[in-house]
Amino acid sequence: MDKDFKTKISKALGDDVLRGALGRFGDAYILARAKAYEGYDFDALSENIVRVKSYAANHIDEMMDQFEKAATARGAKVYRAATAADAKKYVSDLVKKKGIKRIVKSKSMVSEEILLNDDLIADGIDVQETDLGEWIVQLAGQHPSHMVLPAIHMTKEEVATTFSGHLKRVEQPVIAELVKTARVELRKKFLEAEMGISGANIAVAETGTLMMLTNEGNGRLTNTLPPTQVFLVGMEKFVPKFEDAQHIIQALPKSATGQLITSYVTMITGPTPAYYADGTVKDKDFHIVIIDNGRRKMFNDEKFKKTFQCVRCASCLNVCPAFQLLGGHVYGHIYTGGIGTILTNFVNSERDAKNPQNLCLQCGKCTEVCPGKLDIPQMILELRNRMGEKDGIGAVPKFALDVVSNRRLFHSMLRVASLAQLPFSKGQPVIRHLPMFLSGLTEKKSLPTVAKVPFRDVIKKVKQEVKNPKGKVALYAGCLIDFVYPKIGEGIIAGLNEKGYEVIFPDGQSCCGAPATYMGDRKNARKCAVMNIEALEAEKVDYVVSGCPTCTHALIDSFKELVEDDPALLARAEELSRKSRDFSKLLFDLGGLPAGGDGVPMKITYHDSCHLKRSMGVFAEPRKILSDTAGVELIEMKESDRCCGFAGSYSIKFPEISGPILDRKIKNIEETGADFVVVDCPGCLMQIGGGLDKKNPKIKVIHTAELLLEKRKNSKKKNKNKK
């Protein structure tokens, strides 16, 4: 990650106008999208999109042949461009051949991708964007910051200033007046244009039909008025049959802007007649350029082939915490946000994708709203690891991860740290200030201290009184429970003992490898996976339990992928995956705990861990367990499943981004009036607890297992005192 990129991040974070615009849209979008999908089965709609788009992708040459045959029969000229240069040459040659001087365009991200405007303008052609947002950014000398809403980053005041500078007259920042100005200025451009260039949302192989979904009339004017028409279509836009398009037409507006349907759904099947002032009627010169430019390579890559299921709704941008803070000019190249990073890697270059891919928090919110069912975070993780293997991850991160993957060295250093931290903690359980270059880590939050006694030592002294054990559970602690929050481990043992299970702690376990995975160091991630697969010996226990969803995700999913090249290890990883559960999930599956507790009133709110809810689908289970605890009043917070900004190493790598995300979470917590925030993730506990310690120390954070432990202990004490 270069210094210029860090500067861009700082500039965006300091732009209150940008953050306000993106934040307001993000908040409004969630409500609008939910309302738009009322009465619709989103999952069924998504399944249909996946079905038709994946079929088309798997038969792409057949689709293109069928489309070309149908479109040609209706008067179109179809050209297949292998590269951006091929596409630009075709359009440029056509412009020169016909002596065209004036071109109007309706929104086409493909033309942005191949930088078509730059080449045409360099040849002296007047190229005019006619989508309002595209026209605004064109006049401002910028690229779109969003795939659907190109000028979302600009306020009406900035637009008025841009218009005033271009038109040499003062324009007032009144939206209705600005739209009127655009209409007047652009109308004459349509009438003068000799060529219209458009994109397309859908290409129907069966009929040779192109479909455009727009909210402005410029799209239809662009592809009806000029005598020469050019459509630029990415080869991922195909669907097999006309009826297949209905699924995308239903989902795209709802997912993109929260509309039931766009203002205009335009279908073009061949050229339409052009009527001239002298009374003559001629068919338009109609061209369709189908563009590859890296798309086939993307589809042929097993890890990225599902990108062809994307309908370009940009809903992944609309819910992304990082995008809402930074915008597309930072989080993107031409295509923006998470999906934009993946597209950029293939259709532009790996170099262009290298900086933006760092910005993904891996929170998985985008996967919930994607109508194409894309696992965007996992694809970005794959990019990150490939880049790490090719270019390295930097000397300092590499050294740190080498240490973490060396169990004995890492654990020895943590034990030393428990003593070395004393000058900074001053005897408190938190570190509130760090010196010099480390000061940024404690600017927004306090940090927990390393436990004086790690859990691996604590468990040796825990008395497990289990009569007639039903089975045996291996506890996987992970770094934070083992060396920072051993009390969580004690809570897990108590809960499972009460259900009749003996808990063991395999001593050879260490870091789950998530830090290495998320930083692009697959080698060390695999080393951690092998170490833990061998240490946990899942074959000998009934379950493997973790109190950290990130670790559980590694046990269930990541380890299998990391050792898939070794059949013997893979078999053991699959056994481990089958038996692994997060604590709340396992306790719930075992029937939960009997209703009870100390009866002391306790107002709590609950924060959903990203991995627990989105990777494992666990969210109702911990709430049920907590609600059954006597005296606990659960108050739901707004956006309970919105990322807290921890995201593992992300909060260290980007404290300036993690901080504002945490601020939003704390605000939502405070609005509940709760005294405690309950979490199921020690990483979230560290992040939220550290933030509250700085801003509102009256509110405490506690892990579900620890809360249950305390309530049960207090209850036993009360009953004992009564006797």
Characteristic key phrases:
alpha/beta, elongated, 22 strands, 36 helices, 6-stranded parallel beta sheet
Q: How would you sum up this structure, described in words?
A:
The chain is an alpha/beta fold and 723 residues long. Helix content is 52%, strand content 12%. It has 36 helices and 22 strands. The chain has a six-stranded parallel beta sheet with strand order 1-12-7-4-2-3, with helices on both faces. A four-stranded mixed beta sheet has the order 8-5-6-9, sandwiched between helices. The protein has a four-stranded parallel beta sheet with strand order 16-15-17-18. A hairpin with a 5-residue loop joins strand 10 (273-275) and strand 11 (281-283). Helix 3 crosses helix 12 and helix 30 packs across helix 32 (620-627). The protein is elongated, with a radius of gyration of 29 Å. It starts with a helix and ends with a helix. The model has no long low-confidence stretch (mean pLDDT 92).
